[in-house]
Amino acid sequence: MKGIMISAPNSNSGKTVITAALLYSLKKEGFDISAFKTGPDQVDRKILEIISGKRAGNLDPFMMGQKGIEFSLNISNSEYALIEGVMGCFDGMGTTSENSSFDTAEKIGSDIVLVYAPQGEMFTLIPKLKGMIEFSKNRIRGIILNKLNPKLFPLYKKMIEDNLKLQVLGFFPKVSEFEIEESGLGLDIDERLKEKKFLDVLYKIVKENIDIQKLLNLFQPLKTDTKIEIKKTNTRTAIAMDEAFNLYYSENIFLLENSTEVNYFSPFKDTELPDCNFLYLGSGQINKYKDALSQNIKIKTAIKKFAEAGGKILAEGEGLSYLFEDLDGFKMCGIFQGSVESTSTLQNFGYKQLEFMQDCILGKKGTLLNAAEYHKSKATTKLSPIFTVKKPYANISFKDAYVYKNCLGLFQNIHFIYNIENLYNLIQS
């Protein structure tokens, strides 16, 4: 597999739209291509999956380890990989470049194309770019200028190529309709980017302004050697998948589909659970659909009955809200005592290190696990949390995660691939 990473000097640079445009264009031109998102972001990964029509993966060394990111690339079975970076190119954990887009690119052997939006500058961008190129050990090989007046492109192109060893691949004009608005838990992934008209406009811009052949020439063979043996079990897994529950790490789904018998269901629409002995509730837009979820009494009753009978349940991220007694006053499953309140801001955002203070369905007391947190929910409960949660590179820690019988709920999201034994703890009797 050959790949390239699309990165930028900072967030809000237009990486997502430009990566989406390139992905759709390459797919439309007939290339066998999969997409990946650097870091833990499930929303951007979902966008890339919708556009490509193929499984999109995450590449996160902290949450997945070196073997995990190679495994994610390996199972895509595509000829090409287009990788969207995260934040600024060198922005990592705390004040380091660890786990940054650049760090990940080094670990998988990918070169980088930079998305750069000049803002009131001309030659000043040369020393800026030179510093980034040198710091990347010449891994930054190309650049796409964003939000640019088309009349200025020839000037910028000549200036950059005269002064730097950097290929200018083209530009993207400033068009307000290409700004993807935030909605609920991240981007509104279900409407805008499913519009063929919108994607076709992006394709037209790429055809007119980006040298696709130059881009393809920058794709390099990636490290995809890692193969992980997956044990087949007799476990029957039910996974919630609908408008409300739709954000899962695709590697987790792949592992479950290859180690258990998986059936999908909708807490939003279905009235009974599939035949299962493990239930997986992921994140999504539970807050948005809380009214409809509260009205589906039959499925809530079935889930609670499953829990009372000792069935295993893992609920993570926003999915945890569904297992409390109520969410913003709307009745939920009532497995965990207490209530959840939706908030306007993110709660405890970022990477976390989890330490188990007692045994649970994921592992034994003392187990350590890396995770990420991204939700707008706050629980009020008298239950005793079972995890110590620490934020790396910061003197911040708190207690979180709740158990009831064989049910575990946590606001953090985890990757099974980090320690596959956690997965087998879940799915084995």
From TrEMBL:
One of its GO terms (molecular function) is ATP binding. It comes from the Bacteria. Keywords: ATP-binding, Cobalamin biosynthesis, Glutamine amidotransferase, Ligase, Magnesium, Nucleotide-binding. The keyword Ligase applies. Residues 4-184 form the CobQ/CobB/MinD/ParA nucleotide binding domain. The keyword Endoplasmic reticulum does not apply. GO terms for biological process: cobalamin biosynthetic process. It comes from Treponema denticola (strain ATCC 35405 / DSM 14222 / CIP 103919 / JCM 8153 / KCTC 15104). This is Cobyrinic acid a,c-diamide synthase, putative.
